[in-house]
Write a structure and sequence with these properties.
With about 425 residues, the chain is an alpha/beta fold. The protein has two domains: about 250 residues, Peroxisomal Thiolase, Chain A, domain 1; about 150 residues, Peroxisomal Thiolase, Chain A, domain 1 (3-Layer(aba) Sandwich), CATH 3.40.47.10. About 35% of the residues lie in helices and about 20% in strands. The protein has 14 helices and 14 strands. The strands form three sheets. It has a ten-stranded mixed beta sheet, with helices on both faces. The radius of gyration is 20 Å and the shape is globular. The relative contact order is 0.19.
Amino acid sequence: MIATTEASRLPDNQRVVITGIGLTAPNGNSLPEFRENLLEGRSGVREYEIRYFGRTVAGTCQFEVSRHQARKELRRGTRAGSVGIYCSNEAVRDSGMDWPNVDKSRVGIYLGVTEHGNVETENEIHELKGYDYDTSFWSHHHNPRTVANNPAGEVALNMGITGPHYTIGAACAAGNAGLIQGAQMLRLNECDVAVCGGVSESIHTFGIFASFHSQGALAEHGEPSRASRPFDLHRNGIVVAEGGCVFIVERLDDAKRRGARIYGELAGYAMNTDATDFVLPNPDRQAECMELALKRAGLAAEQIDIVSTHATGTVSGDAQECIALRRVFRNAPRTYFNNTKSFIGHSMGAAGALELAGNLDAFQDGVCHPTINVDELDPECALNNLVLNQPREIGKATYILNNSFGMLGINSVAIIKRF
């Protein structure tokens, strides 16, 4: 018998549900396509080349940028803005709400990002080189392109949203952080609809590749589709990816009132900080973050059906997260573990949102998608019920726990309940 959660004891105007999903990932531009490729084992990692750094591999998206943007918007805006605009429009369409008649002053936009502005600054300096670094040729669009709120602001301009908009800079914990912020603003009655999630344009800056390479943390493999391999004994780093995932989130009473389809309910969440290192994770703090989210949801660890791991494919990062997971879940007999980055690489600010979205259909089909590219499991990454290389039928799924951790020791966890 499943215990009643803290979330379900709240009044309907404090319960928060997901009613729409729009996404672009390296292996899919809609949730059905993304989910199918996760179950079929199709990677979206490809060969990639970027100036100054050269040839590498990356997760690149192929969405139709002109579907929701005019040429003028594309010329003036950013790649992150285009990702956000595509995902937000697709999420609204998916939600089935009567968008033309929605009060746009009661819509808020909360998009997580890892970083923003590097792409545009690198582009401008590259162009300026051709003019002997004469700054009179510097683009007058640079400032609005590089301000931290740009991706959310571009969505607001495109969709005519006049409620609050901002980005949440939370490193690679940002996808969860965007969802959490949206839920909090709904509960505070600051908005009636939250457009929230995460976006990333990271593959368009050579600096991120160069920096991971200098750290010894950039993945290499003769077959690009096999380069991202969390938990594998021979993993050698991160595959950088772009992408985005935006959720439409509403209070339960509003969703019921309009007869919305509900993907799931936010049962609990937590964020905390390691406060120990710039880069190396702290498994004690990660475990505490999961435990706090479980406590707020009113759940025991063994009630979680699927844990979506953060593991990025680095030697130390994957092993440290597994220490935290073993501490929290021990040998929970019905908890299954998987990883989405093995398919798409690390989409930074979008990672947590995409990874959650890719697991939500388990509420309907009872299948846990696998981690792919694991030829030889690292003993330090051994977990009970770690799903490797092939999907696993797990029966009825009721709770999904989604981990997202980032540099400077920021941790985020979201728990979604089957509705």
